[in-house]
Amino acid sequence: MGEMGKRKLDTGWLAARSTEVKLTGVELTTTHAPSGPDQPWMEAVVPGTVLATLVKNNLVPDPFYGLENESIIDIADSGREYYTFWFFTTFHCKLSGNQHVDLNFRAINYSAEVYLNGHKEVLPKGMFRRHSLDVTDIVHPDGENLLAVLVYPPDHPGRIPPEGGQGGDHEPVKIVDPHLVSSFFDSYKRVYLHVTTGLVNKSARVAECSLNVLVTTEVKGGFCLVEHLRTEHVSVPPGASVQYTFPKVSVWHALQKLIDNSHHLISYLYELKQIFLEFLLVALSFYKPHLWWPNGMGKQSLYNVEIGVEVKGFGESDMWNHHFGFRKIESNIDSVTGGRLFKVNGQPVFIRGGNWILSDGLLRLSKKRYQTDIKFHSDMNFNMIRCWGGGLAERPEFYHYCDIYGLLVWQEFWITGDCDGRGVPISNPDGPLDHELFLLCARDTVKLLRNHPSLALWVGGNEQVPPEDINTALKDELKLHPYFQISTQSGNSQEDIFPLLDDPSQYLDGTRIYIQGSMWDGFADGKGDFSDGPYEIQYPESFFKDDFYKYGFNPEVGSVGMPVAATIRATMPPEGWQIPLFKKLSNDYVEEVPNPMWEYHKYIAYSKPGLVHDQILLYGAPTDLDDFCLKAQLVNYVQYRALLEGWTSRMWSKYTGVLIWKNQNPWTGLRGQFYDHLHDQTAGFYGCRSAAEPIHVQLNLATYFVEVVNTTSDELSNVAIEVSEWDLEGNCLYYKVFENLTIPSKRTVPIFEMDYPKSNNQTPVYFLLLKLYNIPDYGILSRNFYWLYLPGGDYKLLEPYKKKKVPLKITSEVFIDGSAHEIRMHVRNTSKKPDSNNLLYKNRFIERDSDGDFDVASLEAVNSRIEEKKEGGEANALRVTEVNGTEVGVAFFLHFSVHAWKPDHKEGEDTRILPVHYSDNYFSLAPGEEMLVNLSFEVPPGVTPRVTVRGWNIHTGHTIL
User: Fold this and answer.
1) Quick one: which of 880, 858, 850, 856 has its CA closest to 867?
2) Active site residue 556
3) Which residues, listed in sequence order, are joined to residue 207 by a DSSP beta bridge?
4) At residue 858, does pLDDT exceed 70?
5) Integer angstrom CA distances of residue 959 from 811, 819, 821, 897
6) Which one from 463, 707, 722, 725 is the annotated catalytic residue?
7) Which one of 171, 394, 412, 556 is the catalytic residue?
């Protein structure tokens, strides 16, 4: 018998424009197969769009670079034939006996003809659906198979409105769309796993099957612990599709009968006992399971659930496995704030996250990029991602990494006026042209994604609701199972006495709410009025004021997102490097006038004439691109830290959550992003990382009270706050410690009002350092550094501060495992310490639990790259770098970067190694202060990495490694 298995066909594809291929699909897959990338055939990008293939082969310019997108002909002008393409590949498939093979497509935009070895199949329309073809009788079991797919674009591709928009197997019995659901009892100490799966018998005779469910957990060393193994016998008629549920349906029917006849309960006691005995024999029950928690609330524990089917006389027929997390998500409208409140495993979650468009505008989707994207969100301490309705349902790998890193997912269906319904003229206010096709795609998406513990809710559309018939159907098909509805009754409910009335895994979903639109039912004003936003620069203190946003949960609030100068140079020609003109207006405000390329790439200005003075000019007029982008990073950090701190300051009293517009860009955009399309972070990334800490100390910029935020489930006790303020000369102007503090769980608590800058010894610009630490061991729980100016002032005194030479000492250690590198660095400001006995230098950082994606234990310290240093006669594999300086002061706005070292480096060449995960970046150190910074990244083959440090007053760049 041949081996059972699955193979991805995501490499080795060729593509050609259909009008340039004079052969039929039958000829391509029989007698005239293309032999390689010879005209008109070219190497194809799969997965990816037709445009991605054209870009790869330099047939169109890169639409992400400069204004090149303008030179690419739009389908509305070219016609559909121009973008109708053939895709061709070959594969081998070894079959024996009565094995079956399916050809599966994750999605095709928009319809296709499939040719395999001369046989034709037509795939139905719809880009948000899966397709499966039984090709058992078509494949050559011992030879090469020729596959050609003719892909047609949408029938009605439409035209962009003038004002634009933002949108963007081998088996006789097959396992189909299993559904996993967990239900909890006894205060989450007992959980039941419910499993329903489809079984399709593709043979012409009855299939006598053994259906197995195996649940395992991974332990140290790569070994797995078997938690449950259950086997059931199932008979599947020839050519039939059946649904089978664990535990046995008869048990649930008996329970239902008992409840319906509760007045006879005494006479049914014996029967009840027998029913529960039978239930316990067949139920997949767990006692005190490891729970799945969102990021910042606990570990993301996952079990591996494997479903297998064996057919009598054949053997193993199909196998399916999925990582599954035990957790319960509840949601209701909070009576205090009016915002939507989420609970996970009974614990309220204060939502801090952002909006996601899609991974890549050309759909060059990869597991590696998904992992980086989602880990970035985890690194920012976010706990929710909203998959915006103008994007798409991402590939399963996206949701897998949300499971791994603890990001709750708000999944929106494809209804948005940005893509359909607004514009001049209005294109289609009633939504999609084919409502049945939309619902078919929606149901298929639900089945694809519903087993992911990270998935928190379904939403009908962005800033509008689906047409009435679609909305009604979604409400009905995504209704909650009774157990997952929030009960307001006190005491024991029927769910407490009887595990369930009917099996939840037989619902289409049943475990998550459906909200009809992004501004309804606890989001924005809850009524669908345009009450999200704003989307521009703000004064940092505005976010803390009571009148900034009056609703409990804001699904979209946006601001600036300028990347670093190296990204501008890498994505635009020199004419795009011109910084904005600063136009002084009669009302004393300044208007930024960006160059045409920045405007095309959706640049958001750092000023809002009439409301907000230019925040970059606070630091002085920028002189060139590097100066402008560095000052923009200062503003990015302040802006997004203040945004999240302002929301968190009113946690539960005014707000239940906020989502920032937006986390990232699917192309080289210049607005609302925390990392650019090349995967380099802005300073706003680290402003968010600081503000969204689970335990956080912060300054309320409106009241000047120091506050402590505790979003965890545990009370903080025996903690202290250390406050120090510094001037530009390195003097400690103010120092105070507040000890023996207790911070309740799930609270933001104002601790004290700052005396400075109300005191007499004011300085126009000063630095504020806040530390929250454990008293017993001086372990730092939170550290927060501000640069501030007196009311009515600005930061212009920081311009001459660039010349202050503050010494640094950086001790680094390198670990390498293949291409993976980790660098641990202790960075110390070695300028003279102030003469005081404060606790500033006794503190040590408490590292968060490892997320497991970088196994430090397996890394090898490489001495060949590390300068040997002798201390006390012992060799220490450390490298020490010193940045010379003689002055005392704050080492301000330090940031690391990693580059590929090249002996033949060309001027202007982008040598950055991306992505890099930093434990912190864009940070500052007070005199004598030390910080631990970890970097992890992968190095391309044959490349030697170099790590450099720059800062506000370290601008030449010093090589650390």
Assistant:
1) 880
2) yes
3) 236
4) no
5) 12, 21, 17, 10
6) 463
7) 556
